[in-house]
Amino acid sequence: MSIQAQIDTIVDSFSKSANGLFEITGRYHAAFEQGIYGCAIAKPTKRMRLALGVDREILVVASLFSDQQQRIIKFIKNEIEGSLGRFENNIAIVIHFDPDGNSKIRNWGRDQSISILPINFNSPLINSIDLEKRISVELYSHDPFDVTGPVSDDANFYGRRDEAIDLARKLQRGQIRSCLGIRKIGKTSIINRILKEIQGNYSCMCIMIDCSRDDVFELDAAKMLNSLRNSIDIAATDLKSYSIIVPISSEIDLKIARDELEETILRREEPIVFIFDEVDYITPGSPTRQAWRTDFNPFWRNLRSIYQECDRQRRPMSILVGGVSTYWFTVESVDGIENAALAFIPEEFLSPMPEGAIVAMIKRLGRIAGLEIDDEACKMIARATGSMPYWARKCCSYMHRNVSVQERPCHITTKRAEPLVDSFVAEEGSAIAEVALSHLFRVHPLLMDATTKCFEGNGHLVSEPLRRALRKYGVISNSNELSGAMLSRAFSAIKSEPRNDLSTRDEIIVGGLTLNLDEWAEELATLGKRRNLLERRIRDLALNFIRFDALSTGRAQDAKARILAAIAESRRTEMSHLTVEEAINKFLWTDLYKLVIKEWKLFEKIFGDRVDFESNCIVVNDRPDTHAKDADQADVALYRRALQRLEERLAKIQ
Predict the structure, then answer these.
(1) Tens of pLDDT along 617-637?
(2) Burial of 200 by CB count in 10 Å (0-12 exposed, 13-18 middle, 19+ buried)?
(3) Comparing C-alpha atoms, which of 427, 424, 363, 354 is closest to residue 388?
C-alpha cells in the first residue's frame, strides 16, 4: 500500500470516530522537507466550538513517522499561514505513530504558541466517545490560566492591547511616559508588548534598563549616564534596534558623562527610547543601594537636560519608566533639593483591568480548559481578586486543578465556583496579595496608614491624593473599601504582624566605642530582634516558595516531604503527623538554612552566591548573646555584617 493510501486509511478512521464532533470538509496530501503528510479540514460542531473556544476550521495532520521531529510544527505553521484565515491559528490536531510523540509534539507546539492535540494511533480510535476522551485528556490537562512570568504574545496578553499600541505610538514620537503599579499587575508584560509594537511598526532604537540587576543599581548617576551612552554605541555598531544596558563601572565625571550621552543621541537619526523597568531600585527608597538617595536627583536632572536639548534640535528621545512607587516622583524635594523628576516623569498608573475585560479573559481561557464559567462566576472571581489579571488567572488556575479532567467540558456556576474561590483566597491568594501590599508599603510608606484608615471604615479621613493613589493601585474601590477578598485578608495579616521595616531600623555603630553594660545589653537586644525577624522571613519565604513550586508542578502533596527532607530521619518521624506549617515552625535556624541550600535552585536568584549565604548563616548561628560568650566588638561587628548581608538580599523581594 502506498504512503498516500495509508494516510487516507488513517484519516478515514479519524473521520468515522469524529462523527458528532467534527465534519471533515476537505482532504489533501502535502510534501514538506522530504516527508509526506496527510491533511484534513475539520469543521467542529457547535458543542466542540464552545469546548475548544474556536470559531474556524481546524487543521488535522496525519503522519506515518514512528519518530516525530520538530519539522511537523513548522509544517503545521506553514499550512495555517497559507490557509488565509481558514484555519484556527493556535490549535491543530496531529495523528501519529510515535510512542513518545504526545508529549514531544505538545511541548513543541507550546513553544510556538500553538495548542497541539496529539492522537497516538498505535491505539486505534473506536468511536466519538473515545476520541473526545483522548482530546479532553490532552487538551484539558494543560493549564491555560497559569503564567510564571511576563507575557506579550497574543495568546496570553489580554485587556491592554490598545493601551500598549497607544504607548508605543507616543514613545516613538519622543514622549515621556510612566507605567506604575502594584506588584504583578502586569507592568513588565505591557513593557514587553510595547517593545514588540515599536520593533514591529516603527524605526527606533530601544535601550532596556532593568534596574533590579545588581550591576545596574550599583551604578551611580555618572556611571548610569555613561552606560546608556555605551549601550547606544554597541547597538549602533551591531546594527540592532534593541539592546539591554551594558553597564560600565569605571569612574567618570558627571558632566563628561552627560555631554557624551547627549552628543551620542544627537548623532542618531532614529528616535532613542530608554525603558527603565523596576525603577524603584534606583530611587532614594532603593532596597539595595542607599547611595541612590544622593544620586537620584543628579541622574534625572541631567537626563532631563539631555531630553530638552534633543527636543530643541528635533532629535526624538523618549523615556518609559516602569515600577511600583509613585512616591519619589511626587515629592517636591529630596534631601532639601528640588526633585528633578517631579515635573519630568508623569504619574501614570497601570491600574486593575475593567471587570468586563477580566470576565472576557476568564471565559476565553476557561473554554480552552473545558470550563464554561458563567458570567456571574467570572464577576465573582474578578471582585475577589481586585480585578488584577495575574491574580484572577491564579484563582482560575486553582479551580482548574480542582475540577476533574474526566468531567470536562463542564459548566461552572457561581454556586460551584464560590467555595473554590474562597479556598483559593485562604490557601494561596492572600499570600500573593500580602507580598504585593508589603512591597507597596515599603516603597510608598504613606500608603500603609492610609490603607489602615480605609480598612477601618475611616477612608474619609485620608487625603484625596492618597485615596486617589490607592484607587489607581487597585487597593481600594471608589467607595474607599479594600478591593476584594484577597486584599482584605492580606491586609488583615499584615496588620496582625509587628512592623518590621528593615529600611528604617536603627543601626548602632559599635566599632571604636567602649560600651558600658547597659549599652552592651541594648546592642545585643537589637541583634536578637533583627535575627528573629530574619529567621521568620526566611521561614515564610522557604514555605511559600516550596509550596508554590510543588503546586506549579502538580505535586502539592510533595511540599511537606521536601521540607522535612532537610532534617534528620528521627526528627522527620516525630513531625510526620504535623501540617507543613506546624513542621517548619519547629525548624531551628540551622534547619532553615540547610533547607534553603537543599532547595538552592529556588533561592539562588535571591541569595546570590551559595558559599557567601552559608558562611553568613553560620555566623548568625553563632549568637553572641547566648551561653555567656566572650564576644568583643569585632565579633559583634562581624555578626552585624552577616545579618545585614542576608537582610539586604531579602529586601530585594519585599
Answers:
(1) 888 887 665 544 455 556 677
(2) exposed
(3) 354
